[in-house]
Every structure is written in structure tokens, then in C-alpha cells.
Amino acid sequence: MEKISACIFDLDGVVVDTAKYHYIAWRSLANELGFDFTKEDNERLKGVSRMTSLDILLEIGNVELDEKTKLQLAEKKNKNYLEYILKMTPDEILPGVKDFFKVLKSEGIKIALGSASKNAMTILKQLQLTDYFDAIVDGTHVSKAKPDPEVFLKGAELLGFSPAECIVFEDAEAGVEAALNGKMRCVGIGSPEVLGKANLVVPGFVGLTMAQLDF
């Protein structure tokens, strides 16, 4: 087994919980279109691109629109979402994340971001986390959505390591599959029922040690 040289982190649900802001913005859009959008509905949008998310939302509301209108609505949702994330503070970093980053730095392990979010840089700046990352790959750098491994493979490439030397941290099933498809090891953050394909599943970063990553 290759030695771990790099850790690649998804953003939403792993480093910070932006899902609540996505949900508020999507629900607001659904309400404008005349239907409700529940938290259960929102689960279907985890790790999915913006336009695919909109298609799912419209399917839930049984609404059909042309491409031009869909693009306008996606832009409107993003504008609402941006208003929320521009008010974020470092207090919103999930528990244990910053301490774990410090442990990785002290061990000489490189850190990359592998996120589908096109707003990743804005979020990292708001959280004052940018300096922890040696490479950042977000939705502006990739064309294929998870479970395609493109976002993680680009992160490994930017860091200069083979996939076998990297561990991915993910909270969504599609993300875990993307890591495995890219021949990387994966730690699932959340529930074993959802993330059972990961090499290791933990509830969060509090108390996570390097020894646990030796698999």
C-alpha cells in the first residue's frame, strides 16, 4: 500500500455545511414557481451540478421550461445562494476540520480541495482557510460531475502525486464513488448506511488521527 502523501477534501458537508444555504435558495425558487421543496427533496441534490439540480427540482414540481429560462433560474438561485455565503464566518467551519488540517501540515502531507462548487474560492476566503490548501480544484476547472473522478484526479495531478498516494474525504455517495473510480482511498464523513463503499466511515473530524488513515 502506497504511503499517504496527499489528502483531497470535498467542500460542502465536509469542511463546511453550505447545504443549508443551497436548500434555502432552492426552496425559495420552488416557492416562486408555485410548489414546495422539502429537506428530503434536497437530499437528491447532494453532490450534483447546478443545472442537474434544477432539472430535479423542476421534475419534483412537474414544471417544464425552455433552456433559456432554466439558465436564468439557475443564475437567480446562485445569486440568492451567494448572498448567504458572503455572510459566512470562520465559525461555520465544521468541528475538528482546522485541527485536522494542522495535523496534516505538521506531517508534511499536502492538502487539495476537490469540489463541484463554482463558489468554492469565495467560501474558502470567507472561512479564512485558503492558505491551508496546496491546490484548489472546483467547478470552474472541471466538466464532468461526480461519480466521474475528474475533480480528484486533477487535484492529485496539481499536487504531483499518483492517485494511490491520495486519500479523499467525502460526504456524498457520488463523491465516494468518484474517489474509488479514480483509484484513490476514501474516508466517508457521515453515515455508514450511505457511505458504506468508503474504506473508512467516520462521523466527523473531531479526534480523527493519522493512525486511523493507515488502511
Explain what you see.
By secondary structure, this protein is of the alpha/beta class. The protein folds into two domains: 6-17 and 91-213, HAD superfamily/HAD-like (Rossmann fold, 3-Layer(aba) Sandwich); 19-85, DNA polymerase, domain 1 (Orthogonal Bundle), CATH 1.10.150. It is 42% helix and 12% strand. The protein contains nine helices and six strands; from the N terminus they run βαααααβαβαβαβαβ. The chain has helices spanning 19-32, 39-43, 50-61, 67-85, 97-106, 120-127, 150-159, 173-181, 192-195; strands spanning 6-9, 110-114, 135-137, 166-170, 185-189, 200-202. Strands 3-2-1-4-5-6 form a six-stranded parallel sheet. Helix 1 crosses helix 4 (67-85) and helix 3 crosses helix 4. The longest helix is centred in the middle third of the chain and has 19 residues, at 67-85. The protein is globular, with a radius of gyration of 17 Å. The protein starts with 5 loop residues before the first strand and ends in a 13-residue tail after the last strand.
Instruction: Catalogue the unreliable spans.
Output: none
Task: Please give the number of β-strands.
Answer: 6
Nearest-integer average pLDDT? 95
Order of helices and strands: EHHHHHEHEHEHEHE
Taking strands numbered 1, 2, ... along the chain, how are they ordered across the largest sheet? Answer: 3-2-1-4-5-6
- Sheet-strand content, in percent, reads 5-15%
The tally of domains stands at: 2
